[in-house]
């Protein structure tokens, strides 16, 4: 069927309007250009749409665009009102998709901004054999917490203190970890009274460790402070565990 004579447009021709408006992504634009090279109908439609980008872009922003014949009637020149309405709908949908993608990216960035300060560890001059240690936001938050629980494992000798603050959405926690040496990858796991387990945060332990009393450097003597959060309220928590990625429990702190 010739697209200019039939009542429907084959799917490979449907992106001509989006291409004319420049709203295709790179992959979509490349694919359409390959199709355009051998399609006289699309080339003709592209010529007809030349210069219509400002008009269609404005129409796509109007409430209810694409749902009334008035849009087509206001454009008596080629292309047909039906094609104009279809293109406006296409522009509106693609803009909505881009807005949704932008929202997800902004939300992810906001989560990193919020979680970042509490996920910070002690900062030093950049080497593993010295350097001045400064307080982190997690350490500062830990100092302000009034509710804290501590424990030392008799086997691993790892010590942990968990500070907690009740929030409307659950519990904010900051872990102070001492006497642990690496290399290790660890997690702070909340175990609720109903048996559910939630990983609140995770981190790597360097070779020289954290909070090692007899360490040769000041950096290694400093504890690790790292924040986390969970949807459980404090009264719903049974205990916390510091475990390695291999599943070994280093210390348990009862809530």
Salient structural properties:
255 residues; four-stranded antiparallel beta sheet; elongated; transcription regulation; Anti_sigma_zinc_sf; Znf_put
Explain what you see.
The protein is of the alpha+beta class and 255 residues long. The chain has eight helices and eight strands. It has helices at residues 16-21, 26-36, 40-49, 53-60, 69-73, 81-118, 137-144, 218-221, and strands at residues 147-152, 159-167, 170-178, 184-192, 197-205, 224-230, 237-244, 249-254. The strands form two sheets. The protein has a four-stranded antiparallel beta sheet. The protein has a four-stranded antiparallel beta sheet with strand order 5-4-7-8, with no helix packed on it. Helix 4 packs across helix 6. The longest helix has 38 residues, at 81-118. The radius of gyration is 30 Å and the shape is elongated. Residues 1-10, 62-79 and 104-132 have low confidence and may be disordered. Keywords: Membrane, Transcription, Transcription regulation, Transmembrane, Transmembrane helix. Residues 16-43 form the Putative zinc-finger domain. The chain crosses the membrane at residues 103-123. Residues 133-144 have a biased composition (Polar residues).
């Amino acid at each position: 069927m010739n697209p200019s004579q039939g009542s429907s447009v084959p799917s490979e021709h449907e992106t001509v309007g989006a291409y004319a408006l420049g709203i295709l992504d790179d992959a979509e634009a490349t694919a359409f250009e390959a199709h355009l090279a051998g399609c006289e109908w699309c080339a003709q439609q592209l010529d007809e749409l030349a210069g219509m980008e400002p008009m269609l872009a404005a129409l796509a922003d109007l409430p209810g665009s694409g749902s009334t014949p008035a849009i087509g009637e206001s454009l008596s020149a080629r292309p047909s009102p039906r094609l104009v309405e279809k293109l406006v709908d296409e522009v509106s949908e693609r803009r909505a998709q881009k807005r949704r993608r932008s929202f997800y990216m902004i939300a992810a960035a906001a989560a990193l901004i919020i979680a970042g300060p509490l996920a910070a560890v002690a900062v030093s001059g950049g080497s593993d054999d010295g350097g001045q240690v400064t307080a982190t936001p997690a350490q500062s938050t830990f100092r302000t917490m009034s509710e804290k629980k501590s424990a030392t494992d008799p086997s691993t000798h790892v010590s942990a203190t968990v500070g907690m603050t009740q929030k409307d959405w659950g519990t904010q926690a900051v872990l102070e970890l001492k006497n642990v040496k690496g290399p290790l990858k660890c997690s702070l796991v909340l175990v609720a009274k109903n048996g559910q387990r939630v990983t609140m945060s995770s981190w790597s332990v360097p070779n020289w460790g954290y909070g090692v009393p007899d360490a040769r450097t000041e950096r290694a003597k400093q504890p690790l402070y790292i924040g986390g959060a969970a949807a459980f309220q404090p009264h719903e928590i049974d205990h916390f565990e510091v475990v390695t990625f291999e599943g070994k429990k280093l210390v348990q702190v009862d809530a």
